[in-house]
């Protein structure tokens, strides 16, 4: 009878970081330093938040005024409020139905500025290129950047290019940073939602995430869905014109609508009640999610926003949104409530309420 | 989506709920076997919407959850080898072994790949003749035809670099084990619709008769579950105990003969340990001797591994339906989807994960706002 | 158990050792193996699980299930069952219950 060996003995080089006992692996204390970053830490859900809260935030504390870092910050300069943001784009494949990494990089940063109520002024563009990337690909992506910038009405004013060895970058990593001016009288913030406010969604969700998944190896399905990546600064301008006191603006990217709403509920200390039938989800998105066992509420979007406004402004804001193409399908999907603060709930078809949670980590296709 | 949306109609759901309420005169406890059914019941709040007399006990229908800890540890030991491409269904990646899990190994550089179909694993083997490709063949009877076909194809193609780590479990022996338990409270079953699409329901007839329990083969959409519950309750109320088929659009009494043939060409019944429950005789599949060369357990001698479950995990009781996640001291605190102690919290078909995703029993609100927004710099 | 969803067969390929199909699931198309449902033709619906069609969906039964649910009429059933309670051997063995269902409050 062979002797029983502990698993750690059989893991070879992978055993170093494994906890020596189940209790260690599950200690609720902060992430141990020997631990490794997981893919899930970048997904925009709970793991990402934990990484910020437990590792990055504390390490930066002395140099980061006002607490943990956010998507965009507002800085006062000579009486004007300047919004400043940065984002990195690591999507693979570089080109996908409906867009490419270049377009994503411009729209992503333009939108982060727009979600602060700011009109974008200028962007920087930095490339980290993997050795071996076809020059044509680089050219196409850069042309895409230019087209997207023109469409959004923003200039690329500075940049950087680095090349790293084969295998060190997924073809191309792009970083954009942007500055914009926050319109006077506008103070959007995730902590500004208040009880009774209306929750408005600018259009159908799940398109970008499904478009990406459809071209990812291993999942192999075809679908006629294109990414919804687009600049939203025009839409935001329309919203602000109709309602300068808009409380919250958020684009539900990584982690999907559910994660974005959960963050808002937590930051504002309120609950959010959604009506499931009001949330527009295109048929093929639902089908793809069914097949993979994913929740459409957790799928990334790149050209949608959530606006939270005082209930009395709902009709005016909806009308203003629907008057521009990016908001043509805008719809009210729920209300801010006093119940279950910090949580998002949705009425099911049998009339029960269920809690809509944040995405936990990497979205793994459910098969079985 | 056709043949899905129609079975989610809210009005018909209410109709069925009202009818269940109308016919129920005494308390009844039913068990749905399949994790996919548990998922729908909890996500739609159907179990909470049922009339007070009808209680759903969640069964061990999550093959991810019941895969023995030893198998997970063996998978990890094999995946850690540099010559191996380890392929698996997505669900298995986060299941905790005695230490670590496949996803963590992947993060550290092990070649672990998610496949949608077992045929993809065979393709990977054919495309990488210099690497060993191992496929984690888990599942109930539903998945056996696919897993068996992969082995069959690998044999036909003469692939000597392909092997499978088998961990198949069978439903009828599990049902009997539950019925034989002295603490059993289950009075009727909703049988797993897709398991029966493959195997038919002939194996359930002797169970219904021997234990006098109604068994209704049921689908996975809200209307399917509600209709299945209604049919079971009607039987209970009238003292009947037979097998009925709610999922008529997908299931016939004899099941899928072709699928069964391939399964039994490649696999045979054997004893199987169920994580959290223990050994249930003749409750699993293993490779037949003719295909033993494809067995990853013998190809990679990982021997016997000293396994260690987390002491706070009560997965066993949960899988047997004697406890719910709300009875667990670790639920939502030490054990969450992000840091699971046991399999039912990891698999999206697991009871604990279903409860957690629906927010049941979780203290509200979240401890700390996830981040504070920097307002106008002042 | 498990994720088996219905889709429509829109293309069939018999060129390899296994009969394969392209199946459309409400706008998403994916490959599936038809080895276990040899009678399936273009336009038929199948239930697919991990890349294999395990069942040929019976569209008549699908409709019948919905019809039966729609036909549930609480008031009508009450009368029907009330009448049947006077006939103990009306349906199957052991059909007599506790004297007919009453509306639980």
Summarize the structure.
With 378 residues, chain B is of the alpha/beta class. Chain B contains 16 helices and 12 strands. In chain B, the strands form 2 sheets. Chain B has a 6-stranded mixed beta sheet with strand order 4-3-5-6-11-10, sandwiched between helices. A 5-stranded parallel beta sheet of chain B has the order 2-1-7-8-9.
How many DSSP E strands of chain A? 16
Rg of chain A computed from alpha carbons, rounded to a whole number of angstroms? 22 Å
Global geometry of chain C: elongated
Order of helices and strands of chain C: EEEEEHH
Could you tell me how far the N terminus lies from the C terminus of chain C, measured between alpha carbons in angstroms?
35 Å
Report the strand count of chain C: 5
Query: Structural class from helices and strands of chain A?
Result: alpha+beta
What is the CATH topology classification name of the largest domain in chain A?
Phosphoribosyl-aminoimidazole Synthetase, Chain A, domain 2
The amount of helix of chain A comes to 25-40%
CATH class placement of the largest domain in chain A: Alpha Beta
Low-confidence stretches of chain A: 17-31
The proportion of residues forming helix of chain C, as a percent range, comes to 10-25%
User: For the largest interface in this structure, which chains are involved and how many residues does each contribute?
Assistant: A-B, 87 and 87 residues
